[in-house]
């Protein structure tokens, strides 16, 4: 889920005919506080997911 949020902020999927391409979005120079929290939460969810998978494999 966190990886999806990070990619959704930077890229958009556009359709050209029958093909789909990832197009890089223009980045904002002034970042909101909300954008910073979104990035922190997405990185946290990725690390938490990795630790959950490792825990499941070990036990």
Keywords:
59 residues; alpha+beta; two-stranded antiparallel ribbon; 2 strands; 59% helix
Description:
The chain is an alpha+beta fold. It has one domain (2-58). Helices cover 59% and strands 20% of the residues. A hairpin with a 2-residue loop joins strand 1 (11-16) and strand 2 (19-24).
Q: C-alpha Rg, in Å?
A: 16 Å
Q: Count the beta strands.
A: 2
Cα distance spanning the termini:
24 Å
Mean pLDDT, all residues: 82
Secondary-structure topology with pairs:
Blueprint: H1 2-10, E1 11-16, E2 19-24, H2 33-58
Antiparallel strand pairs: 1-2
Quickly describe the structure:
With 59 residues, the protein is an alpha+beta fold.
């Amino acid at each position: 889920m966190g990886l999806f949020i990070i990619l959704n902020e930077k890229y958009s999927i556009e359709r050209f005919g029958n093909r789909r391409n990832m197009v890089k979005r223009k980045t904002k120079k002034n970042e909101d506080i909300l954008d910073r929290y979104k990035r922190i939460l997405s990185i946290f969810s990725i690390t938490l997911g990795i630790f959950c998978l490792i825990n499941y494999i070990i036990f």
